[in-house]
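A.,

Following up on our hallway conversation. Structure tokens first:
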């Protein structure tokens, strides 16, 4: 085996960031594109040093007329490498990027659970990280959205999603594939400018590189890396603050996560008032994540945060699902709006 600088770098990254342990079962998502082929080749080459059991999963979204041929291509590569292959095909055509991503992760998690894989590994790169940061920035987001792709995150209770290539650019994966003559399957949808991410990749980032910083892609990805550490610290600190401020008590007509016992959720305003605004907002987001069915948006968080210093008896309009937050002296109480009005 030829040992390149990229092999050494990924080996060090996996070890220093504790992305995997030895002798683990890794399910590698392989589309057939340059990033995923670079990833599986690196893991196969590193396998003797780590003792991993590798499997390859391919998700056919049925976006393209050549999607079945694409799947057969990845299957043939798996057989050549002697790696277990798993294919899942969408029951109907998926036309949304967000829907496709959600289906893909659900599918990969199901395969991993069925075949006892502990990790799902994807070929996201520094280029993807930069593109995601810019995409989220233009949609409007806080530091959590700007940190973009993270090195690892749980998909289920016992399965981790891991991205070992986040310091590697798409240009580097292309060079690696060329060096080892890996048969890249070109995805025509990557050139379709109706997708916002493709416009960022093909138009915005080249413009930034040509007119502002030739290393713009790496600089943006490094910003995401710095923000990730900041977000992790703030989330831990906000969690500690929430535990100090939050109480559950038995009460009537109040919002409860454990119906039908109707526990009353309340927040101590005096505790929260001492904290910086950044932590107040994070506490409120964490609280709303517990009581709302869907993720809270900026307006939800802001109107709840405003109650920390609002006059007594102030209240919010209903959140999705009917919950209302109300100030009672030093406390913010959460009650079911429909129950209260009956």
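Then the amino acids I'd put at each of the 342 positions:
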């Amino acid at each position: 085996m030829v040992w390149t600088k990229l092999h050494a770098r990924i080996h060090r990254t996996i070890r220093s960031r504790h992305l995997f342990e030895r002798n683990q079962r890794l399910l590698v998502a392989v589309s057939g594109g340059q990033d995923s082929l670079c990833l599986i080749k690196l893991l196969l080459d590193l396998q003797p040093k780590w003792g991993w059991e590798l499997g390859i999963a391919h998700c056919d979204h049925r976006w393209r007329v050549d999607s079945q041929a694409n799947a057969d291509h990845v299957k043939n590569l798996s057989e050549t490498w002697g790696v277990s292959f798993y294919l899942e095909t969408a029951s109907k055509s998926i036309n949304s990027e967000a829907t496709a991503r959600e289906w893909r992760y659900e599918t990969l998690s199901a395969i991993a659970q069925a075949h006892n894989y502990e990790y799902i590994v994807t070929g996201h790169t520094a280029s993807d990280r930069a593109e995601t940061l810019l995409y989220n920035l233009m949609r409007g987001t806080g530091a959590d959205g700007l940190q973009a792709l993270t090195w690892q995150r749980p998909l289920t209770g016992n399965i981790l999603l891991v991205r070992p290539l986040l310091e590697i650019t798409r240009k580097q994966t292309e060079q690696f594939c060329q060096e080892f003559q890996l048969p890249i399957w070109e995805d025509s949808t990557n050139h379709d400018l109706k997708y916002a991410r493709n416009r960022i990749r093909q138009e915005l980032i080249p413009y930034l590189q040509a007119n502002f910083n030739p290393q713009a892609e790496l600089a943006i990805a490094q910003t995401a890396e710095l923000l990730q550490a900041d977000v992790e610290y703030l989330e831990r600190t906000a969690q500690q603050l929430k535990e100090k401020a939050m109480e559950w008590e038995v009460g009537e007509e109040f919002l409860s996560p454990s119906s039908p016992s109707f526990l009353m959720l309340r927040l101590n305003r005096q505790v929260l008032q001492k904290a910086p605004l950044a932590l107040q907002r994070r506490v409120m987001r964490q609280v709303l994540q517990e009581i709302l069915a869907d993720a809270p948006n900026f307006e939800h968080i802001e109107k709840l945060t405003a109650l920390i210093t609002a006059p007594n008896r102030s209240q919010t309009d209903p959140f999705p699902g009917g919950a209302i937050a109300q100030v009672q002296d030093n406390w913010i109480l959460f009650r079911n709006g429909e129950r209260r009005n009956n």
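The two ends are 74 Å apart (CA to CA). Curious whether your intuition agrees with the design.

B.
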